[in-house]
Amino acid sequence: MGTREAWDIAARFPSSFLWGVATSAYQIEGALNADGRGRSIWESFCERPGAIDRGDDASVACDHYHRYRDDIALIRDLGVGSYRFSIAWPRIQPTGQGAANRAGLAFYERLVDGLLEAGIRPFPTLYHWDLPQALEDTGGWAARDTAARFADYTALVMQVLGDRVDHWALFNEPFIFTSRGYLLGRYAPGRRSLPDFLRAVHVVTMAHADGFRAAKAVRPSAQVGSVFAMAPCEPATDCDDDRAATAYADAVFNRLFTAPLFTGRYPQPFLDSIPLKALAMRPGDTERMRVPLDFLGVNTYYRLVVSSGGDNRPDLPYFLFDVLSDQRTTGGHADFSAPGGNILRIENAFGRSEGKRTAMGWEIWPRALHDVLLSITRDYGAIPIEICESGCAFDESPGTDGVVHDQGRIAYHRAHIAAVAEAMQGGANVRSYHAWSLYDNFEWASGYRPRFGLAHVDFATQRRTLKDSAHWYRDICRAARGNVGAAVGYGD
Ligand code: FCB
Predict the structure, then answer these.
(1) 3-state secondary structure 48-108
(2) Residue 389 annotated among the catalytic residues of the structure
(3) Is 309 left (phi over 0), alpha (psi -120 to 50) or beta?
(4) H-helix or E-strand containing 248?
(5) Residue with the larger pLDDT of the pair 12 and 403
(6) Is 312 a residue whose pLDDT tops 80?
(7) 154 close to 98: Cβ distance less than 8 angstroms
(8) Domain residues for 195?
(9) Is 5 a catalytic residue?
(10) Pocket of ligand 1 from Cβ distances under 6 Å
(11) Predicted TM-score of the model (pTM)
(12) What's the CA gap between 267 and 256, in Å, rounded?
């Protein structure tokens, strides 16, 4: 029946609103050599000494590849209406090109069919960071050909699953994987190169455009969008320099990939700060890169507080700005300065902040989600928005009763869901909320230490245990399904 609170929360949303949970292939599947899967850039990256905390790797992860039936039962038990997952490109095309590997596709067919039988919307992402290593060997995302390969891969998947899956996301967080993978060296493939990063930006933009068209060519009725990491940017003080720095940070973090797709132009402050030829654009690209995405997926984990200059630059784990300024001082390839010529300083994870922090060091700031949703609405009108990830990690382990009493996570989701409801009252056209994550998993370079799950995973036994937050979330999902006239149960 659920609690009074759950009913009150569900009642604030339309009956068509989808409550969901999210995962990604590399973080949960394991079975990296099963059924003809090819190698991805993350296996290579995990083998680099020091790349992953404690030397963890994803060879087993949550063993989802073998346990997917139990996992569907778990998801069904939560009562969610939507499950966001990703498809591993190396399972479909082991070398990133050529004919489809039937056994790899068959896995996702079984998964999708199981979800549909359970009345859950399957909501796949085509690229959540696991590039086939063979494509990295020919240049990775810095090579133009990779955009064409992505379009081919998209078509292959659509041909098989397009009859059963209505909503598709092309990419997960293009800014994060290009900046961390090509510029900062902190994610696969671990490069630290400004020229490679800039090329990757444009290749991934063209991959969006080509992938969108390939998907629509196979399935004109498919709803095709993409998922962007977004964070509201606030000036640290009211001074002009901080405001200019904030506008620049916003252009790069929030608009570098959305602006070309929605408007056909890279954001002006970004263009002003780089030599255009560094993007390696080709004639005709400007016309091609504008595509009418059917929805915008958004992942918001924090806000960014931005100031210009300052000697005491903090560690900027997520951003290119300090690397850019290094490039300037070491005579790098581009004079990559913010308007006014200042070095940007961004404080979120490790700098000044008012909110409490999660185990990732990220400031808890629910207003960020509200502000992002309304800024999308201001910029792109009433485009449907899917909240594809929202969640937090805490250092937690089961108590003596075997249960995780994660009040912090409940408070996190409660506040973020309230922020979504408020943004919807303000006009944001939000259609879903996916908790990151269904269960604890392989958190990229941080390994298994940060636990983001609603369900706890004991990685030694693969036992899954619902945390208190999972029970709390389940009550909302069930209350939503019980809404008068509910149309929530996808496929019901
Ligand atoms: C996002 C990623 C997701 C997960 C969360 C914590 O940036 O999309 O895979 O790692 O962060």
Answers:
(1) CCCCCHHHCCCCCCCCHHHHHHHHHHHHHHHCCCEEEEECCHHHHCCCCCCCCCHHHHHHH
(2) yes
(3) left
(4) helix 240-255
(5) 12
(6) no
(7) no
(8) 3-242+251-299+354-484
(9) no
(10) 24, 27, 172-173, 176, 229, 299, 389, 436, 443-444, 452
(11) 0.93
(12) 6
Task: For the chain, report the end-to-end CA distance as a whole number of angstroms.
Answer: 20
Number of domains in the chain: 1
Distance CA 474, CA 468 (A): 10
In ligand 1, the atom with minimum distance to the C-alpha of 176 is: 7
* Residue 68, domain CATH: 3.20.20.80
Please give the number of the atom of ligand 1 that sits closest to the Cα of 229: 7
pLDDT > 90? residue 257: yes
Q: Could you tell me if residue 477 is inside a domain?
A: yes
In eight-state DSSP terms, residue 179 is I
Q: Is residue 317 part of a domain?
A: no
Atom of ligand 1 nearest to the CA of 443: 10
**Residues in the chain, overall count:** 492
- Cα distance between residue 104 and residue 87, in whole Å: 10
Per-residue pLDDT tens digits for 313-357: 332 323 445 443 333 333 332 333 343 444 455 554 334 568 888
- pLDDT computed for residue 90 by the predictor: 99
Q: Give the Å distance between the CA of 299 and the centre of ligand 1.
A: 8
Contact 58, 42 (CB under 8 A): yes
pLDDT tens digits, residue range 87-132?
999 999 999 999 999 999 999 999 999 999 999 999 999 999 999 9
Cis geometry, peptide bond prior to residue 390 (ω within 30 degrees of 0): no
Residue that is written with structure tokens 């977004």 in the block: 230
**345 belongs to a structural domain:** no
Does any domain span residue 490? no
Report DSSP letters for 267-333, one per residue: -HHHHHHS-GGGG---TTHHHHT----SEEEEE----EEEEE--SSPPP-TT-SHHHHHHHHHTT-S
Amino acid letter, 94: P
The catalytic residue among 173, 234, 347, 443 is 173
Instruction: Please pick, among 43, 234, 386, 389, the residue that the annotation labels catalytic.
Output: 389
How many angstroms separate the CA atoms of 201 and 260, rounded? Answer: 11
CA 236 to ligand 1 center in whole angstroms: 26
